[in-house]
Amino acid sequence: MKVSDLEALGYTRETKKEMEDFEIKAGYTGDLLSDVMANAPSDSILITIQAHKNTIAVATLAGIRAILVCNKRAIPSDMIEAANDNDVALFKTAETQFEASAKVAEKMKG
Amino acid sequence: MNNLLFVNDSHEVILESIYTVRVKEAMNPNPMRVAPDDTMRTAKNIMKENGLTGLPVVDGNRLAGILSLYDIMACYDNGNLDDQVNKYMSRDVILLEEDMPISFAINYFNKFKFRRFPVINKNKELTGMITARDLTAAMLNNINKQLQKYDKLNMRLSDPDPSDIRPDTVIYRQFIVHKYDFENAGKVTSEIKKILKERGIKQSIIRRVSIAAYELEINLVVHSDGGVLIFQLLPDAIMIKTQDKGPGIPDLEKALTDGFSTASEWIRSQGFGAGMGLPNVKRVSNDFQIASDVTGTEVKIKINLGNEEDESK
Amino acid sequence: MTFKEIVEHISCEIINKGNDFDTAVIENVSAGDMMSEVLVGDEDNRILVTALTTDQVVRTADIVEARGVILINGKRPQTSMKTLAEESGLTLISTKNNMFTTCIELGKLLGKCE
Lengths: 110, 313, 114
What we know:
A: alpha/beta, Udp-n-acetylmuramoylalanyl-d-glutamate--2,6- Diaminopimelate Ligase, Chain: A, domain 1, C: Udp-n-acetylmuramoylalanyl-d-glutamate--2,6- Diaminopimelate Ligase, Chain: A, domain 1, five-stranded mixed β-sheet, 5 helices, 5 strands, globular
């Protein structure tokens, strides 16, 4: 699955900057940043409700390519800015982490 | 996570320090440094004289790389001490940002086997270096400050105003909730839930009262300096009031917005501070009032016992 | 789905068998680590999936009348969490899988994905 495929799943892209359309090889779901930092695989998508700019720092460190913010959480502008700066694609959805995880997994299977 | 210096069941005071002290406060703000065109000899001398095992390489204000003892050894092995630093330094540097909580630094020390990390500001300029020793010093300093505050906070609160008690009150209870007391957070709610169950109150009402009581209780623990929660069962409704000793909510409107939060990384690591607290309370209440200034915050809510049609939104 | 199906389908360890372990029918999943977010939902017969190992998870589960809690990434409950789960008769399960994988597996059991 490519980052661009997330749009086809109906997720709204918050980062408008042109970025490389990375291949996403794994998914990781969670809201505890220390857990994400320790365990998230690289080249992955993070499914979370943690709409905070520190999430971008963690993503950059862990090699996360895309973040999907669930439950219609409002995304602060400094988070979008940090995502653009660090080439992390940021998306949002009204789905819960459970629904989004199941849907993204389906898409990853191809 | 096999080598975390601090684990998740550490005392709240320690956890709070990890998540609220910023890298900026812990780092060495004036680290020794070399320029990319300095010689390895210069770098070696600086490290030797200052007992350092690593040096940031700075070009103007920009961080160009980092030089370790291993690089000096490599230079002794296959080079010349008159060579320039930029020939040996590593350019692939793991950085910390100065406004990150030190929990990030602890994770970095665990994840990567480096002994020091350069710290940069928003403009990506080097503003300091941080070692595990710096971290420990900052932690101890903060724990000391927190414990002094903590001792003062454990004093009993004064009794609430008797005018709060309505004459037709069936049951009246007041509970004291302490700052940081995550271990006991939720016990008040369990108590209230038990009272309502014994009285045979409808399950859907119990759930709404529990959500409100729990969020208010958590607010006292994580956001206030401690306070009191008053529960009243009336013939037709349930009233809950919380009163705390500060520090007050700077922007009430924002605090009532879904997703807005002033919570620290510590609170978030405990599963709270997602900005849903007060909105959740409001959502389950038939009547919701809040007032706040620097001396404290007061929240009063009412949930009707009547039929479900009365339910707010 | 039932706890029996979950235990057969997902590699996991039962830490506490709740009062309704044999009878509960689970219809919904709340996956996440923010407890207030769990309180927002009003679905019945939920199971919570989280990396958080504190008492607050059990208290939240109790308030929303969740049927059980699955701890992910091989997390073990803190002692007080385990005690509280035993006292409240709440089923507590630990799996080595992460939350993403656990969601997929539970999704399959609930027929939400293949």
